[in-house]
Each structure stands twice: as structure tokens, then as C-alpha cells.
Design brief:
Elements lengths: L4 E6 L11 H4 L4 H15 L2 E6 L3 H10 L6 E4 L8 H10 L3 E5 L21 E4 L4 H15 L1
Parallel strand pairs: 1-2, 1-3, 3-4, 4-5
Helix pairs in contact: 2-5, 3-4
Bound molecules: 1,3,4-trihydroxy-5-OXO-cyclohexanecarboxylic acid.
The site of 1,3,4-trihydroxy-5-OXO-cyclohexanecarboxylic acid has 10 residues, from loops.
Length: about 150
């Protein structure tokens, strides 16, 4: 069997992790999240790649291009709460995905407590900091192995 390669998709402003509101999002950046996921991927014998964009259409393009992916980890940032387009792209591909939020969105403003993605997700991880990406990768790898 070929080694499954999972993709971590990050939406708007997540390129600023590490410097952006560190009290909410922590001091670690996306590069550190990627390094840690690569370590976990090595341990699990899977591959992982990262993509970040501040643009909704670019994220939709990436989702469509990964229609055959064994799984996606999706932190759509603010688009989680607004984007029917991202929801539709995920629904159209039917690719299993885990939704991740670095902060605990349920302890924040009301508008962050609505996700257009959660009911389609295989799982949702919130409030675990950048460790959420590693946890999601472990989950997708386990699902792909069954
Ligand atoms: O940009 C983000 C980051 C976020 O997705 C998180 O990872 O906690 C939560 C969103 O509400 C916010 O707009």
C-alpha cells in the first residue's frame, strides 16, 4: 500500500500564528506546527503537507485538487464561520477531514460558535493549541488504517 499523505489546510491570518494575539493562540507559529506534524507523520509512517492561504478561493481550489486525498486537516480560520463555499467544496469531494481550531472557540464570541464545517467533519479539535494539528493527524492516520 502506498503511504497516505495528509494535507493541513490553514485559512486567513493563520500565517500570523506565533505573533497574533498570543494570549489566545499561543507563541508557536505555523512552521513549528508543521515541524511537529512532520515528526508525528514520520513516527506513523505517513506523509503530511501544509498549505495556508488568506483567500477563500485558493482554499477551495486546494480542496478540489485534493479530492483523492486520504484526509485533510482543516483550520479555515474566520472562514469557518462564514464560508458556504468551503463547506460545499468539502462536501463535493467527500474527503474525510478533521476540523481544528487552535483556540477554544466555544469560550469566545457567539459568532465563533457557529461552524459551517463541523457537521461534515470526521472530528473536531478545539482549544488544544497547535497540538490540535498533531492530534488530528493521528486520528486521520488511524481512520485511514481501518
Ligand atoms: O482565525 C481564527 C483562528 C481559529 O480558527 C482558531 O484556530 O482558533 C478560530 C477562528 O474563530 C478565528 O477566526
Amino acid at each position: 500500500m502506498t503511504r497516505p499523505v495528509f494535507t493541513v489546510l490553514n485559512g486567513p491570518n493563520l500565517n500570523l500564528l506565533g505573533t497574533r494575539e498570543p494570549d489566545l493562540y499561543g507563541a508557536a507559529g505555523l512552521t513549528e506546527a508543521q515541524t511537529r506534524c512532520e515528526q508525528v507523520a514520520g513516527e506513523l509512517g505517513v506523509g503530511v503537507e501544509f498549505f495556508q492561504s488568506n483567500h477563500e478561493g485558493s482554499l477551495i481550489d486546494e480542496i478540489q485538487q485534493r479530492a483523492q486525498s486520504p484526509g485533510l486537516i482543516v483550520n479555515a480560520g474566520a472562514l469557518t464561520h462564514t464560508s458556504i463555499g468551503i463547506r460545499d467544496a468539502l462536501a463535493a469531494t467527500g474527503v474525510p477531514f478533521v476540523e481544528v481550531h487552535v483556540s477554544n472557540v466555544y469560550a469566545r464570541e457567539d459568532f465563533r460558535q457557529r461552524s459551517y464545517l463541523s457537521d461534515l467533519a470526521s472530528g473536531v479539535i478545539v482549544g488544544c493549541g497547535i497540538q490540535g494539528y498533531e492530534l488530528a493527524l493521528r486520528r486521520l492516520a488511524a481512520l485511514a488504517a481501518t
